[in-house]
């Protein structure tokens, strides 16, 4: 993909469906393999659930990669990783049995 920015909707959609989304799913497969290796059953379930249920977040965010020129694959790698950890932490907070604000704060601070 060149540094050329799509000039119309057809060109954009072509790039998104032929290049961006396949690369997103390749990155997600990497994270699925990593999640399957989590030894704790509950944490593994939440990780896999966040990827399965929120794939569209990675797809949508990765559309910005068309603006990254020749670095589009690196942009997708970053966007998918960042969105995946965000969704995972969100799942942990939403489905946690803890009501301790310190627990939630620690989860969100883990990204900084």
Give an account of the 3D structure.
The chain is an all-alpha fold and 112 residues long. It has one domain (9-109). The chain has helices at 9-36, 41-53, 55-62, 72-94, 101-109.
List strands and helices in order, with pairings:
Blueprint (H helix, E strand, L loop, with lengths): L8 H28 L4 H13 L1 H8 L9 H23 L6 H9 L3
Helix pairs in contact: 1-2, 1-3, 1-4, 2-4, 3-4
Series of H and E elements? HHHHH
- Note poorly predicted spans: none
Shape: elongated
Distance between termini? Answer: 32 Å
How does the major sheet shape up?
Answer: none
Mean pLDDT: 90
List keywords for this structure.
112 residues, mainly alpha, 5 helices
Care to give the gist of this entry?
With 112 residues, the protein is mostly helical. It has helices at residues 9-36, 41-53, 55-62, 72-94, 101-109.
């Amino acid at each position: 993909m060149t540094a050329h920015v799509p000039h119309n909707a057809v060109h954009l959609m072509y790039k998104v469906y032929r290049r961006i989304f396949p690369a997103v799913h390749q990155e997600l497969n990497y994270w699925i393999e990593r999640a399957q290796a989590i030894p704790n059953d509950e944490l593994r379930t939440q990780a896999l659930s966040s990827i399965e249920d929120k794939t569209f977040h990675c797809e949508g965010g990765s559309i910005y990669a068309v603006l990254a020129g020749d670095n589009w694959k690196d942009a997708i790698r970053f966007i998918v990783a960042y969105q995946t950890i965000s969704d995972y932490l969100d799942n942990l907070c939403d489905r946690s049995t803890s009501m301790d604000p310190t627990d939630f704060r620690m989860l969100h601070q883990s990204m900084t």
